[in-house]
Amino acid sequence: MAIFIPEAVVANLIDFPTAVDVLIDAFKSQGQGTAANRSRLRIPIKGGTYNLMAAANLSKNVVGLKVYTASKNGAPMLIVLHAADGTGLLAIIEGGKISGCRTGALSGISARYMARSGKHVLGVIGSGFQARAQILGVLAAVSAVERVVVFSRNAEKVGGFVKSMAAEIKVPISAASSAEQICTEASIIVLITNSSEPVIETEKIRPGTHVIAAGNNTWLRNEFEPTLAAKVSTVVVDDIDQARIEAGELMRASELGLFNWDRAVSLADIVCGLRTARSSDNDITLFSSQGIGLLDVAVASHVFQQAKENSLGVNLGGQ
Q1: Which of 163, 225, 250, 317 has the least CB density, counted as fewest CB within 10 Å?
Q2: What is the mean pLDDT of residues 132-154?
Q3: How far apart, in Å, are the Cα atoms of 279 and each of 40, 112, 170, 188, 286?
């Protein structure tokens, strides 16, 4: 019998360390050919878009679809899971918490596999609601982070954000006075903004830095300069086909002749050991995160299994 799992239940069935493990397992399934992702489909609606993200993970016997409208009224999300053997609907799950958790965990995985060796300072540019998930995701995946520093153009907002995060994490966190300070102090930098103009200068990024661009999945936005794609040793994306139509900064860099898509590497190849992210601790690496359906389906599948084992969720009746 299929079940409905609301956000209040989801919140108790997934955390960031677990999400990191679930996503690594999904990437390994993809590398082994037992999981598949399809690029996001956007359908125009009044004042926004209707978005569909489909994927299959045959190793877990699930196929799924995340659907949501994105507009000034927000982005309410649902994830629909079916059994991959064709036996029917498994669950309908509210997907906001799953999406936030997988986005932060994804950034953390990139840092685990792509950042240089040694201790780290995590720098975050952006202090919106998604910044929290980015910090928790990186801290869940990388134990060597010693402190966090955050910059936002809204000084009052970043002060409140830092105060709330300080009560939630175990490492010191402070506000930075500029993006340049982030570049000076941080060895892992997360960009999590909705900016249409670059928030970081290529020339300010130090050797050895791992940059995570997590705030943009449209040509209309632009978190880093096109020159960064030419400077880094490795450009990694969560899905190459999807990045070609959503990674605005890389699309611009390609148009300017600063980046060739043949250089793009999938994170699944990095996780599976088919490619390496860096040859030296001095290399600068870049992960451009778009968010893919496979990862939503992977986390949703875990949530569904936990709900079943604990008799949670609302029965949807016979099929």
Answers
A1: 317
A2: 96
A3: 33, 15, 31, 17, 14
Q: If you average pLDDT over residues 82-99, what whole number do you get?
A: 97
Residue with tokens 């997988």: 102
> What is the spatial distance between Cα 10 and Cα 7, in angstroms, rounded to a whole number?
5
Task: Tell how far CA 193 is from the center of its chain.
Answer: 13
**41 bridge partner residues:** 52
Give how far Cα 89 sits from Cα of 76, 294, 317, Å.
21, 17, 11
Nearest to 247 by CA among 292, 298, 186, 277: 292
Angstrom distance (rounded) from CA 79 to CA 52: 10
3 state DSSP class of 286: strand
3-state secondary structure of 54: strand
H or E segment at 296?
A: helix 293-309
Q: Residue 116 gets which letter from DSSP?
A: P
Contact of 135 with 168, CB cutoff 8 Å: no
Q: Name the residue type at position 177.
A: S
Residue 286 CB partners (closer than 8 Å, separation 6+): 210, 211, 213, 224, 228, 229, 232, 234, 235, 236
- The model's pTM is 0.95
Identify which of 228, 153, 147, 139 has the alpha carbon closest to the alpha carbon of residue 194. Answer: 153
* Residues 57 and 28: beta-carbon distance below 8 Å: no
The beta-strand segments (E) located in 72-192 are 77-83, 89-94, 120-125, 145-151, 173-175, 188-191
- 3-state per-residue secondary structure call for 189-219: EEECCCCCCCCECHHHCCCCCEEEECCCCCC
